[in-house]
Specification:
The protein has about 140 residues and is an all-alpha fold. The chain has 5 helices and no strands. Helix 2 (about 15-40) packs across helix 5 and helix 3 runs antiparallel to helix 4 (about 80-105). The radius of gyration is 16 Å and the shape is globular.
Length: about 140
């Protein structure tokens, strides 16, 4: 049902369905990242440590949603696909975390959640292309 709604939105705005679905999953991932980060940070964890855990939670959730909503590829084994997803995500999340860490260290008086959004934007394009072209790419027949 959600896939049909997302595809309808894509047609309405003349966008590729994968882009709309990926954006939706990204928003869900950012919400997971932000809520788990805030809970850990409010519980007293240092923001740089809390972000590592929140990124891990968000990554598990987005892998599952991207697998079922965005790319819908099941030609490759789940383990192989998951390892490819982790490789791309580590690069994208590294970019996101690096941006976040630099901003937190340079401007500790600001809300770290603002820097999370900036970091998420920095990693989003890399993440989409990496997952489309590598993690969930169709297998080639020999």
């Amino acid at each position: 049902m959600i896939t049909r709604l997302l595809h309808r939105c894509a047609r309405q705005f003349s966008l590729p369905p994968e882009v709309v679905c990926f954006g939706f999953v990204g928003c869900m991932g950012l919400a997971t990242d932000m809520s788990s980060f805030t809970a850990l940070h409010e519980a007293g964890m240092h923001p740089l440590a809390a972000r590592i855990f929140s990124l891990a939670f968000a990554t598990l959730m987005t892998w599952s949603l991207n697998r079922h909503l965005t790319f819908e590829r099941r030609e490759r084994s789940m383990g192989n696909e998951a390892s490819r997803y982790v490789m791309v995500t580590l690069c994208a999340q590294g970019l996101s975390y690096g941006t976040f860490a630099i901003l937190v260290l340079l401007m500790p008086q600001f809300w770290p959640q603002v820097f999370m959004v900036i970091g998420a934007i920095a990693g989003a394009a890399f993440s989409f292309l990496g997952h489309k072209l590598f993690s969930f790419a169709p297998t080639t027949q020999r």
